[in-house]
Amino acid sequence: MKTLIKGGTIVNEGRCYRASIVINNDRIADIIEQDETPRDSYDNIVDATGCFVLPGVIDSHVHFREPGMTDKADIAHESRAAACGGVTSYLEMPNTVPQTTTLQALSDKMQRAGRDSMVNYSFFFGATNDNSHLFKQLDSHAIPGIKLFMGSSTGNMLVDGDDSLMSVFSKAAEAQLPVMTHCEDTDIINRNMAEAKKQHGDDPDISLHPTIRSEEACYKSTQHAIAMARQCHAQLHVAHLSTARELTLFNNQHPGDPLMTFEICVPHLTFTLDDYATKGALIKCNPAVKTVGDRTALREAACNAIKYPHMTIATDHAPHLLSQKQGGCAKAVSGMPMVQFSLVTMLQQVVPQSQEGLHLERLVALMCHNPATLFHINDRGFLRKGYKADIAIVSNTPWTLTPEMIESKCGWSPLTGTTFRWRVEHTFCNGVHIYNKSVVDDSYRGEALSFR
C-alpha cells in the first residue's frame, strides 16, 4: 500500500515547511521538500493543501477502564475517540479491576488491546507496597515504565511509606524503567477533607476541591518523590503537575542526576477554579484544577523550551458515567474524558511565530516528540524517513462540539458547546488511513508499542 500526502505544511522537530510525505505500507518512505507532486503511482492520495501535517499524538496518560469498569469506558470506544482526535498511541494506567500489578494482569491487557484497540498501545505496570520484586521480570521493551501512586489511590496501590517507596524507586532503577508518579500527600488531603466536612457538611461544595486537594499536598509529595528518585538514581516523571509552586522543584536539575521531568495535563492548562461555577463536578479531577495564577504558570512552562525542554502534555483521560459526576467534593468522582479533543484544545492556545506564547512547533514537541523520547518509544513521535507512519493532519476550520460528536463510551465532555478554531481532518496509524474527515475505519487494529 503506497500513500502520498501532498501540499501540506509539515510541523516536525522545530520546523514548519512545505513537503510531501510518501508512505509505503506502515512506514514513512520519503519526505520531499518541494511543491511539485512526486511522480509515482499511489494507492491513496491525500491533498493536505492548507493543512498542517503533524506526527500522531502520543498520549502518555490515559485510563481506559478495561477490565473491570467497562460500564464507563473500554479500549474499543476510547481508542476510537483517540483516532478521531489525532492520537495514534497511548500509554494506559494500571488502576483497573484487577489492577495491572501482576504479570498475568499485564498480559491480559495486552491481549485485550491487540483485539480491540484502533491505535497503538502499551500499559504501565503498577507499583504496590509489595510487588517491586517483579520489576526485574518485566520486559522493558514492551512497557513504558512503572506507575506509582503516592496519593489519590486505594488499596495496595497507595504507596506512601518510605521503606516501600525506596524499594519501588531502587528496583525500578535496577530494571532501568522510569517511574511515573501521582503526587499528592494523602494525610494532608484527609485532614483538609475532615475540616471541610466539619464546616460544610458531609459533601462540601465542589468549589472547595482545590482547597482540600491543596497546593501543599501536591508540593510536599512531589518534593518527596524527587528526593527519593535522586537517592535511588531512578528516572522520574511526575504526572499532572498542577501548581506554580511545583514548577520550582524542576528549575535546578542536579548534575549527574537521572532525568527528573514532569507532565502537565490538558484540564490544568484549560480550566481554573473559577470554572467550577459553571462546570461543577464535570471538571473535578485529581489533582484539582486550581487558580488562574497556577494555570498561567503552567501555560508559561509549556511555552518555555529552554527552561523545561523535556516536559510533556497528556490528558489523564478518565471517563465516568455522568450520573457519577453529580455532587460535591465527597460524592462526585474525579476524572473526565479528554483524549478525543486534547489536540484541538491545545491548538486553541497556539499563537503565530511573531507573537510570544505557545508555538505550533513547541506543541508538537510536548505532545509527540517528548513522550517518544522520554519513554524511549521506538520509531514513533517524529516524522522521519523509516519511522512508523503515525500522522495527524489538522486545519484551521472552526466547529462547535455537540454531544453526538463524542466517541467516548461515557457520552459526555466538559468541552461540549466549545467552538474550536482547529479541526482534525485525517489520522494515519501505521500508514493506515483510520480517520478521514469523520469517517472511521473500525476494522483496523493498532500495534503494541516497543521501547528501548
Description:
- This protein is of the alpha/beta class.
- The chain has 12 helices and 20 strands.
- The protein has helices at 75-84, 103-116, 162-174, 186-200, 209-212, 215-232, 244-247, 266-270, 276-279, 292-303, 342-347, 360-374, and strands at 2-12, 15-24, 27-32, 44-47, 51-55, 57-62, 87-92, 120-123, 125-126, 146-149, 179-182, 236-238, 260-265, 312-314, 391-395, 399-400, 419-420, 423-429, 432-436, 439-440.
- Strands 1, 2, 3, 4, 5, 15, 18, 19 and 20 form a 9-stranded mixed beta sheet that branches. Strands 9-10-11-12-13-14 form a 6-stranded parallel beta sheet. A 3-stranded parallel beta sheet has the order 6-7-8.
- The chain is globular, with a radius of gyration of 21 Å.
- The protein starts with a strand and ends in a 12-residue tail after the last strand.
- The model has no long low-confidence stretch (mean pLDDT 96).
What's a concise summary of this model?
This protein has 452 residues and is of the alpha/beta class.
Helix/strand layout:
Elements: E1 2-12, E2 15-24, E3 27-32, E4 44-47, E5 51-55, E6 57-62, H1 75-84, E7 87-92, H2 103-116, E8 120-123, E9 125-126, E10 146-149, H3 162-174, E11 179-182, H4 186-200, H5 209-212, H6 215-232, E12 236-238, H7 244-247, E13 260-265, H8 266-270, H9 276-279, H10 292-303, E14 312-314, H11 342-347, H12 360-374, E15 391-395, E16 399-400, E17 419-420, E18 423-429, E19 432-436, E20 439-440
Parallel strand pairs: 1-4, 1-5, 6-7, 7-8, 9-10, 10-11, 11-12, 12-13, 13-14
Antiparallel strand pairs: 1-2, 2-3, 5-15, 15-18, 16-17, 18-19, 19-20
